[in-house]
Amino acid sequence: MKKLLGILVLGLLWCNVGFAADISDFEIEGISIGDSALKYLDEEEIKKEIKESVYMYDYLKEPEKFGHIAIREGLKNYSFITLLVSINDKYIIEDISGNVISTITSNKELDTCLKQMQEIENEFSQLFNKYEKFENITDHPIDPTERSKVHYIEYQFENGDSAQLQCFDFEEKLRIENNWADGLSVVVRKNKVSKWLQDIK
After folding, report:
1. Are 24 and 83 in contact, with CB atoms under 8 Å apart?
2. Are strands 3-4 and 26-27 parallel, antiparallel or unpaired?
3. d(Cα 131, Cα 22) in Å, to the nearest integer?
4. Cα angle, residue 49 at apex, residues 200 and 139 outer, rounded to 5°
5. Is the pTM of this model over 0.90?
6. What are 86-105's pLDDT values in tens digits?
7. pLDDT, tens digit, for every residue of 45-57?
8. What is the b/e burial string over 41-75, where b = at least 16 CB atoms within 10 angstroms of the residue's CB?
9. Is the per-residue pLDDT at 192 higher than 80?
10. What is the 3-state secondary structure (H, E, C) of the chain?
11. CA atoms within 13 A on the CB side of 20
12. CA-CA 20 to 30 A from 70: which of 30, 77, 135, 181?
């Protein structure tokens, strides 16, 4: 049985805690790694989403290797879901992010996001205690000013796949101009996507 990685709206905690051997054993809003995006959107919607979002990956050597899709309707626990899919006729999902929007314009708001992240990490540490843990703050590569930050906690599986918590704090002008969202993300990701995101021009 798959394990539900859902944020409870009030508690911001993970559900159905247990050990799993494969990242595809988990789901966010009923969606799992290895599913086809065609289960959730029709092909025209998928193509439109991918075309409109490709600019966000222009900093990578192969910005069109995977396609970015956002799902905003019919969700129970998240503001929106983002998927990274293989660019082929099946649109296989390789990365899922459940996102909770919380605009960050002050240290107090950032502290709230980080507190929520730590609350979920308390559950992460039980769920993924057999895997290697990484924790850091990094510049977001899409922002040349280096003012946009990503606070993250990552548990890496033996095959390089990972489960992550991320708190995004975009530079304010950049966030407003691009209609991007600050806030907390819960991520399950294949190793091939991690490598792609690290291959910067």
Report:
1. no
2. parallel
3. 12
4. 30
5. no
6. 998 899 999 999 988 777 77
7. 999 999 999 999 9
8. beeeebeebbeeeeeebebbeeeebbbbbebeeeb
9. yes
10. CCEECCCCCCCCCCCCCCCCCCHHHEEECCECCCCEHHHCCCHHHHHHHHHHHHHHHCCECCCCCEEEEEECCCCCCCCEEEEEEECCCCCEEEEEEEEEECCCCCHHHHHHHHHHHHHHHHHHHHHCCCCEEEEEEEECCCCCCCCCEEEEEEEECCCCCEEEEEEEECCHHHHHHHCCCCEEEEEEECHHHHHHHHCEC
11. 22
12. 135
Q: Which tokens is 92 given?
A: 């296989």
Joined tokens for residue 3? 């394990």
Residue showing tokens 């998927």: 83
